[in-house]
Hints:
Layout: H1 3-8, H2 11-45, H3 50-54, H4 56-69, H5 71-86
Helix pairs in contact: 2-4, 2-5
Amino acid sequence: MKQNKIAELSDEKLLKQKGLLKSILMAFGIMGILMLAVVIYIYVTSDSDKLARIFPLPLGLPIFIFPISLLPTLINLNLLNKEIKSRNLN
Length: 90
């Protein structure tokens, strides 16, 4: 979202958009925690065979990339919060 587009939103739409982005971030945060738990579980319960120990590596890579993919959403939420603060809505 561009700053101009955010400034054109009504108060209700602005607050609704903020709630939507917060919900999306919380859902993806929970999914990230679950992904991490699955990788740890696979790593701990695997046999001492070297191939079984390497298996979580391809699963672990998305866990480190996952937060980076959420940056645009965090930036938009930050812009929305600034606009809400400038309008004294919350």
